[in-house]
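Exercise (ungraded).
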Amino acid sequence: DAMVIQNPRYQVTQFGKPVTLSCSQTLNHNVMYWYQQKSSQAPKLLFHYYDKDFNNEADTPDNFQSRRPNTSFCFLDIRSPGLGDAAMYLCATSRDNYRFNEQYFGPGTRLTVT
Amino acid sequence: AQKITQTQPGMFVQEKEAVTLDCTYDTSDQSYGLFWYKQPSSGEMIFLIYQGSYDEQNATEGRYSLNFQKARKSANLVISASQLGDSAMYFCAMREKNSGGSNYKLTFGKGTLLTVNP
């Protein structure tokens, strides 16, 4: 009964070659988040969507973009991956994002940049 | 700026014993929320427990309890009767306003790697 699904689980891309990671949810939640988690570090929020409203964190590089074509799907696009972008990318959802916003996480996509 | 501090990079505990994972936080907000998540080696973040700043009683969920000391700004996680499957990374997180100030987000501590020994 997967609720937040991320594909692929492992992704290898070349330096500078655009890559897209996908996330889907069966929870019908309003909010979808993308986090970057580098090795042995805490997850860091890149951006989130509240419905169609896109909210970018101030320190998220322009190299990272996102699309949410409908409630169920959200994509993370890395336009020109660098070696420093190798990380685990976590997608999460919540019903809303105020007060108690328990977030449901997917299994993550581990990105390798060669 | 708000932040979360987890001072224990790694902890060891014997199976069936209790363990406390430390978390302190810094905020000037009166209303805030504190969360604990578990991250096994598979990578998925699993929600464990939540404590609201106005909750008078410490939160409990099965074998997990949160020792909330508001004046000291600490929210330690207590795991009772540890099991081998509890071996994982544990993150403390706090709800805070995002950089635009219009929505809330979670800010995570650096985590504590718990190893349960048989």
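Further reading is listed at the end of the chapter. For now, observe: The radius of gyration of chain B is 14 Å. Chain B has a mean pLDDT of 91.
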